[in-house]
Amino acid sequence: xTISQPSMFSGIPIEARDGTISVLSTLPQMADALANDWxxxxxxxxxxxxxLVGERAGCFSTRDVHRAFIAAAIEAECLPDxxxxx
Length: 86
Known about the structure:
The protein is mostly helical and 86 residues long. It has one domain (12-84). The chain is built from four helices and two strands; from the N terminus they run ββαααα. It has helices spanning 27-35, 43-56, 62-75, 81-84; strands spanning 12-15, 21-24. The protein has a two-stranded antiparallel ribbon with strand order 1-2. A hairpin with a 5-residue loop joins strand 1 and strand 2. Helix 2 runs antiparallel to helix 3 (62-75). The longest helix is centred in the middle third of the chain and has 14 residues, at 43-56.
């Protein structure tokens, strides 16, 4: 019998240019967000992409990906203010 591990991370809210907020809670959702119309292409964006690839290769943990994704979202200024206050 396989027991699924509960997610240790809550979702990460991302605010789109039109003001809508999406909560991303899986690595595929984060990959899609980065690949489709991400508002920045700076170094944190590239680090988040590398972390996603590294996680698939077993070089990075899920926690590393979440940290890199949050850093990319801060760089792109797409985290809602309420998230930044936490």
